[in-house]
Design goal:
165 residues; alpha+beta; globular
C-alpha cells in the first residue's frame, strides 16, 4: 500500500499537467445512457486509429462501456463546465435535461452535440485492468469536429479556458 504522502504528491504532479476535459459515454445493456468526466484520454495510434481512456473501477459507467463494446469520447467545450461537473458526480440520472443523440456506430455511446467541440466514436479493441482503473483502447470508427467551439481544460484542479483562440 502506498503512503499518503506519495499519493498526495502523485495527485499534485498530475494536477500540474493541463488536460482537455472529456465526457466518455456508453449505453447500458437496456439502452439507458451513461457517462463520466475523464481527463485520462489520449491518442494511441494513427494506423489503425486508436484512442485510450481510463475509467475508475468504481464508476457507474464502467459496466456500460464493458457491455456496449465501445464508447464515445465527447471533447467538452468551454461553455459546458457545468455538464463536466455533473458527469463527474455520482448522480443517477446525469442525462436529465442534457441534449444527446444516438451515434451511427452501434457500439458507441451518446453524442453530446450541444456541449462538445468534437466527438470520437469508438469500438473497444482492448481492455486492461490497471490498478484502480480500467484502460480501454478504442478503434476510432467516426466522429465530427465543431470548429466554432473552444475546448475546456482542467489544470491544478480547476476548469480553465484557453485564451487567444
Amino acid at each position: 500500500m502506498l503512503c499518503t504522502a506519495l499519493i498526495d504528491r502523485y495527485r499534485e504532479l498530475l494536477a500540474s499537467f493541463p488536460a482537455g476535459v472529456t465526457v466518455v459515454t456508453a449505453f447500458e445493456a437496456g439502452g439507458a445512457p451513461r457517462g463520466l468526466t475523464v481527463i485520462a484520454f489520449c491518442g494511441v495510434s494513427l494506423e489503425p486509429p486508436l484512442v485510450l481512456v481510463c475509467v475508475g473501477r468504481s464508476s457507474n459507467t464502467l459496466a456500460a462501456i464493458q457491455a456496449a463494446g465501445g464508447f464515445t469520447v465527447n471533447l467538452i467545450s468551454r461553455d459546458s463546465h457545468e455538464l463536466a461537473r455533473r458527469m463527474a458526480g455520482k448522480v443517477e440520472d446525469k442525462f436529465n435535461g442534457v441534449a444527446w443523440s444516438r451515434p451511427e456506430v452501434p457500439e458507441a455511446g451518446p453524442v453530446l452535440h450541444e456541449d462538445s467541440t468534437a466527438h470520437i466514436l469508438c469500438r473497444t479493441v482492448q481492455a486492461v485492468e490497471a490498478g484502480d482503473h480500467w484502460v480501454f483502447i478504442g478503434e476510432v470508427k467516426g466522429g465530427e469536429v465543431d470548429q466554432g467551439r473552444t475546448p475546456l481544460v482542467f489544470h491544478r484542479r480547476e476548469f480553465r479556458e484557453l485564451s487567444g483562440l
